[in-house]
Amino acid sequence: MGREARQIMLPRELYRQDPDRLRAALATRRSDAPLDALLAADARWRALQGELEGILAERNRGSKEVGALFAAGKRAEAEALRARMAALGARIAELEGETKAAREEVERLELAIPNLPHPSVPVGPDESANRVERTWGEPPAFAFPPRPHWELGETLGILDFQRAAAVAGARFAVLWGAGAALERALAAFMLDLHRAAGYREVAVPYLVNSRALTGTGQLPKFAEDLFHLEGTDYYLVPTAEVPVTNLHAGEVLEEASLPRRYCALTPCFRAEAGSYGRDVRGLIRQHQFLKVELVHLATPETSYAELERLTAAAEAVLQRLELAYRVVTLATGDMGFAAAKTYDLEVWLPGQECYREISSCSNCEEFQARRADLKYRPAGGGKPRFLHTLNGSGLAVGRTLIAVLENYQQADGSVVVPAALRPYLGGVERLAPEVAS
Questions:
Q1: Annotation marks residue 285 as catalytic
Q2: Nearest 5 degrees, angle CA 432-CA 401-CA 235?
């Protein structure tokens, strides 16, 4: 991450000139970011820089004086001044090392500072302060007690957690027969829908390096939630957001080419550190799952219109599948590290009698762009500016499979296939119990 632009998440002027604003914003986010340590480290760095620049200037002046003294025939004075200038070299070397170490400490601490919330974000400590913006559809009414997807999957013979545990461990699943076909159908359906809406599909690596993860904000803060390949700089991709957002790292895009809208299907790998005891049954919280990701690159002036468009693209999947959901604006204390504003889409799950997150759509503004060095050249001229980056699930495939099973279940244990998915399943209209494997 050689260039300075790759190290800053927020303008340095913000914490240098208005630290109280940043401190107040961090408090609304319940953040324990080391702001005071950062301010102290930055003050030390600037003091060392000032001292170094002063000594360098003194040496430069002295070097010119040495030449003038030699030219004037004042050899003894010139030699004495030259010796004093040479003695400055040791202090300069020492200061250069101290300044470099101080700069690196500032950059390390900067990486721990989260994004600032947009003014429209509700202020609150946790999800209890989230704001419901709208709902779509009506949860289905059943003449029988609806069952959760793990029971339906067992009845259908399509979900197998026991064999997955034997080959991998807890929080993995095997999908048999129609289950595997349904997952594949959902992914293809989502990609086709997004491509028709103007997204450019991209296939990306499933391994990413630490530079890419730092660019989008997963590193260093969330290292424990990543799967790292020991002895390498490779990590299993936690979301396609990481490789897709970094595709243009270090480039300067032309404003005329913006906004750019990409979609990608990848497996996602997450250690789920700290989630023990949560969602231990079923497919809700897995170490490995498929997800279609949407990424937008936009100008600052258009990014919030793009957030609405991105959210609408994710909503379109649920609407075509006729699944009831609601859109929620996350409160300051519930937002992700890199987000300035986030809409969660929460789908109704009858087997659990609640809404559950199926997509998070976020505008990160220039937070990731500063870390990953993502810029564009304004059409009207001037120096390059940082892009705004946006991302969202369009959708998490496994959770969509859950929603289909639970919302379309029948009293006999079968599951009706949503009309939009039938072309992707060879016209099959209903999933019936399969022969045990």
A1: yes
A2: 135
DSSP string, 258-326: -SEEEEEEEEEE---TT-TTSS-STTSS-SEEEEEEEEEEE-TTTHHHHHHHHHHHHHHHHHHTT--EE
Contacts of 291 (CB under 8 A, 6+ apart): 239, 240, 265, 266, 267, 268, 393, 395, 396, 397, 398
d(CA 183, CA 175): 8
Distance CA 319, CA 345 (A): 12
pLDDT tens profile 274-325 = 666 667 789 999 999 999 999 999 999 999 999 999 999 999 999 999 999 9
Q: Could you give the angle at the alpha carbon of 80 between the alpha carbons of 79 and 86, nearest 5°? A: 85
**Tens digit of pLDDT for each residue in 368-390?**
999 999 999 999 999 999 999 99
pTM of the model: 0.92
- Measured CA to CA, the distance from residue 381 to residue 372 in angstroms comes to 23
- Cα–Cα distance for residue pair 52/39, rounded to 1 Å: 20
- The Cβ of residue 328 has, within 10 Å, a number of other Cβ atoms equal to 23
The DSSP letter of residue 123 is P
Half-sphere exposure of 48 (CA within 13 A, CB side): 21
Q: Hey, what CATH topology would domain 4-110 get?
A: Helix Hairpins (1.10.287)
What would the pLDDT profile of 74-125 be if each residue is shown by its tens digit? 778 777 777 777 778 888 999 999 999 999 999 999 999 999 999 999 999 9
CATH of domain 127-431: 3.30.930.10
Q: Does the active-site annotation cover 360?
A: yes
- List phi, psi (to 5°) of 95: -65, -35
- Spacing of C-alpha 135 from chain mean position: 26
Of the candidates 44, 82, 285, 326, the residue annotated as catalytic is 285
270 is known as an active-site residue = yes
Spell out the domain ranges in the chain. Answer: 4-110, 127-431
* Domains 4-110 and 127-431 agree in fold: no
The catalytically annotated residue of 360, 370, 371, 406 is 360
Active site residue 399: yes
